[in-house]
Amino acid sequence: MTDQFSSFNAVNLFDANLFQKGATPPRPQLNTQASTGTPKLAAHAIEAPFPWAPSAVPAAVSASVAPAEHHARPQAPDRALASAQALYQQGRFAEVVDSLLAAPLALGGGAAAFSLLARALGNLGQLAQALTWCERWIAADKLDPAGHYLRAVVLLERGDHAPARTSLRRATFLDPGFVLAHFSLGNLARSRGDNGEAGKHFANAKRLLQRYQLDDLLPESDGLTAGRLAETLGAITDPEPAP
Predict the structure, then answer these.
(1) Separation in Å, CA 106 to CA 32, 38, 46, 113, 117
(2) In what helix (H) or strand (E) does residue 96 lie, and over which residues does it extend?
(3) What is d(CA 238, CA 236) in angstroms, rounded to the nearest whole number?
């Protein structure tokens, strides 16, 4: 690696290093404030291999979370979602799950609620449950590329690479400009030794990054800038200079 990265801390995103200047930042949270009103995926790389894996899962949420287990007094759907989003921003993920599963909105439908549940459970390390709510999110809104992308991230953490690749391809089909999905497809191809396919996906990601300013935050990234991803792509794809 060249000296230009010597002052950056390396962090990992699907087996590829990202670099950030100076000290390691605090663990990011998934951004739930989107222009469409739908909670957005955070694909930002951090120290842990899975972007939302905590050091410990709070006791308030068991490994077998199910809607039938929650009997709290229900709130109105709009109030429940707004309250859950506020809790999410505070990192109170177990309370997000509890509050939404007690609400008619989560049980009766609503892609926004399903999305928030999937993200909160991912943050809690509850991958099986996160995947369940990803499926319900996709069923409620098949055309939302973020749902397919989050499903892919969960599957990758579980080691299910083939279905993750399918979900990533669906995300790029629905949104051909989805930079992080192209980047993730490149990393998957590289991990199985298919450098030709990896190069095509990385080239797509590089081309799409040209639409952004260096300081622009990438969609679904919760803080990852176009410049930082460009540096990562350069480190992966550009040959090392001769010593």
Answers:
(1) 16, 14, 29, 6, 8
(2) helix 93-101
(3) 6
Q: Rounded to two decimals, what is the model's pTM? A: 0.69
Give the C-alpha separation, 234 to 18, whole Å: 10
Q: Which two tokens stand for residue 26?
A: 């605090």
> Is 135 within 8 Å of 152 (Cβ atoms)?
no
- Name, in order, each residue with C-beta under 8 angstroms of 84's C-beta and a sequence gap of 6 or more: 96, 99, 100, 103, 113, 116, 120
Strand, coil or helix: 182: helix
Phi, psi of 19 (to 5 degrees): -130, 140
Structure tokens at 173: 């089909």
Domain boundaries, the chain: 3-22+30-49+68-237
pLDDT tens digits for range 180-221: 999 999 999 999 999 999 999 999 999 999 999 998 888 887
Q: Which two tokens stand for residue 64?
A: 């077998």
Domain 3-22+30-49+68-237 in this protein, CATH class: mainly alpha
Q: Which two tokens stand for residue 41?
A: 């995926």
